[in-house]
Amino acid sequence: NELNKVKSKLNVLVNMEAYYDGYNKSVKTLMNNKEKDSMLHKAILGTVADVIKTKKEYETAIEISLGFALQNIIVKSEMDAHNIIDYLKENKIGRVTFLPIDMIQERSLNANENKVLSEDCVIDTADKLVETSKEFQKVIKHLLGRIIIVDNLKNGFKISKKLDNSIRIVTLQGDVINSGGSVTGGHIASNQNLLGRKREIEECKLLDEEYSN
């Protein structure tokens, strides 16, 4: 029965999402303790993965562009970060990277670098391919404002040369040309990525409604 399949898949995904499955152990512990601790509850606004959405075709590129920053935890202020870091030390939970909104600097391309955005193979800077609420715009600009997304590796090399290899370039397939010229690429295992999981939850909910009506 299709409806049951959708319901059970939705159940699994929602549980994974709720318990931060697939996250690093210290992030997972912290996010799971959030409900039990009022200081954490007040201070933590979410992980980066929690607060962004992107189209399916950009998921790999955005996931690779963010890398471990997907699991960074957004807080309002340096004071919040300070308090949670004390909490991590006291409880021996491990290390976590925080993004305090009041400290974070936006990053963007300069006028000269901006010129390559008009090339056919360039999709945009990564921050423009992500939806987030106004509150987190600055954080996303900080993380993604200086990353250019292109259609494939061959064109990526072309764009990188134009920019003297000074900007990080990521392809839709998830290959990366780092600033400085090193290149990372290869096969990406199609295990559940964090952004894909959120999209699949949305899709299952829609199907569930359709079947239920």
Notable features of this structure?
46% helix; 12% strand; alpha/beta; three-stranded mixed β-sheet; 10 helices; 213 residues; five-stranded mixed β-sheet
Notes on the structure:
This protein is an alpha/beta fold. 46% of the residues lie in helices and 12% in strands. The chain has helices spanning 2-18, 25-33, 38-43, 48-51, 59-66, 78-90, 111-114, 137-144, 153-162, 194-212, and strands at residues 44-47, 73-75, 98-100, 122-125, 147-150, 168-171, 176-177, 183-184. The protein has a five-stranded mixed β-sheet with strand order 4-5-6-7-8, sandwiched between helices. The chain is globular, with a radius of gyration of 19 Å. The model has no long low-confidence stretch (mean pLDDT 94).
Short description:
By secondary structure, the chain is of the alpha/beta class. The protein has helices at residues 2-18, 25-33, 38-43, 48-51, 59-66, 78-90, 111-114, 137-144, 153-162, 194-212; strands at 44-47, 73-75, 98-100, 122-125, 147-150, 168-171, 176-177, 183-184.
